[in-house]
Amino acid sequence: MKYLTDEKRIKAVTVCFTDLEGRLHMLDYDKKFLLRSADNLTFDGSSVRGFSQQHESDLRLSIDWSAFYWLPSDVFGPGKVLVFAEVRGQDGLPYLADMRARLKDYTAAMYEKEGLVAQFAHEIEGFLFRGRDAERNYPERGAFEFISTGGYYHSLPGDALRRFIDSAAEVQRAMGFGNEKDHPEVAPSQFEMNFTHAEALIAADQVQLYKLLCRQVAQNYDMTACFLPKPVTGINGNGMHTNISLARKGTNLFHDKNGDSGLSASGWSFTERILNSASDICLILNGSVNAYRRLDPHFEAPNQIKASATDRGSMVRIPLGNERSARIEVRSVAPDANPYMTVYTLLRTGLEGPLPDPAEIASKRARTRFLPDNINDAIRLFKSSKFVADLLGEQVQTRFAEVKQASAERCPRALGSLIKTAEVQFHHEVTNQYLWNKF
């Protein structure tokens, strides 16, 4: 607060929170007002899908001042900073549906009890389409228009996609999280930008920042950065490959040069627990109707419930690694997933989830099993899972299933070979009051 008071260049503060489905919400406060009112920031929770009911609408925001970022003025306007916040109930206690607070508390307890630090790095793919608000205009246009027809690693330096990537990478650097590499992806107009691994909560925040800055940079170019898992059929979809490792006192606990694929026994235990609950948690990792188009084995889709060092159709890949980089990569995560819920779920499942019977592990590894191929099956498995009830609590389990069911019921049950307008129009990162009520 002292820094905010003393720094004369700051004029306004953007306070962010994330709803249950993973959509980022932002409130802009005048700095002087915020300094007077930081302990009493409220909003109408009944207007946020998955949050409170109308009769209990008011919720509070508690700012996490450690999650403070300057917003580059050439992209977001002068004198602005951004902070993340947690949601509190009317009683001031943590709100059950706020997964950021759940993740923050869990990682703090993990470190305090066992000295464990979880490191995450997300590889987020997206598409760049011509025109602003291409997703919300989809019902009228009926298609997305590629901005570039290049492909994997070979767009020209002056190509519109390449210029967008360079601009977005510069914004990332200005906001303080390093961009390790970036490139056009396999599909036309598709991009991927890889940034440095970070502790679990920071890594989840960075997912939200990354998507925010990509969308804003694209809009400044009169384009749309799209993170729908499969906005166009016949080409690869978008994933959010999630790299995970655990450390204690700086030692990577997943590394064992003599272990199977270089992974330690604790790394394999973590992996087996995730695989054992894969179908139960699939809705968390793939929470939209459109996400199940991506889990198509014809387009490098990671839909097989297994781990492999080489097979990219596996839900979990074991990348080549050393003492510093040994990790697992969960490839079945969609970029529209709630990053806090995803990180919390993968972390807690890997540490506490049920292990398969030792006698069954070998047969399960050999047998090809698949993730659900449609959201309705994923919802059914999610709702009936005792493990998910323990993981999220029955109230959040029910509420999450309800909002996903509401979207699913507006879309055809059979995906077919063509993108349906409804799966774009009613997607949780796209829809608004006007689009939702056009049904």
From TrEMBL:
<keyword id="KW-0436">Ligase</keyword>
<dbReference type="InterPro" id="IPR008146">
    <property type="entry name" value="Gln_synth_cat_dom"/>
</dbReference>
<keyword id="KW-0460">Magnesium</keyword>
<dbReference type="InterPro" id="IPR008147">
    <property type="entry name" value="Gln_synt_N"/>
</dbReference>
<dbReference type="GO" id="GO:0005524">
    <property type="term" value="F:ATP binding"/>
</dbReference>
<dbReference type="Pfam" id="PF00120">
    <property type="entry name" value="Gln-synt_C"/>
</dbReference>
<dbReference type="InterPro" id="IPR027302">
    <property type="entry name" value="Gln_synth_N_conserv_site"/>
</dbReference>
<keyword id="KW-0547">Nucleotide-binding</keyword>
<comment type="similarity">
    <text>Belongs to the glutamine synthetase family.</text>
</comment>
<dbReference type="InterPro" id="IPR036651">
    <property type="entry name" value="Gln_synt_N_sf"/>
</dbReference>
<dbReference type="GO" id="GO:0006542">
    <property type="term" value="P:glutamine biosynthetic process"/>
</dbReference>
<dbReference type="InterPro" id="IPR027303">
    <property type="entry name" value="Gln_synth_gly_rich_site"/>
</dbReference>
<protein>
    <recommendedName>
        <fullName>Glutamine synthetase</fullName>
        <ecNumber>6.3.1.2</ecNumber>
    </recommendedName>
</protein>
<dbReference type="InterPro" id="IPR014746">
    <property type="entry name" value="Gln_synth/guanido_kin_cat_dom"/>
</dbReference>
<dbReference type="GO" id="GO:0004356">
    <property type="term" value="F:glutamine synthetase activity"/>
</dbReference>
<dbReference type="Pfam" id="PF03951">
    <property type="entry name" value="Gln-synt_N"/>
</dbReference>
<keyword id="KW-0067">ATP-binding</keyword>
<feature type="domain" description="GS catalytic">
    <location>
        <begin position="99"/>
        <end position="439"/>
    </location>
</feature>
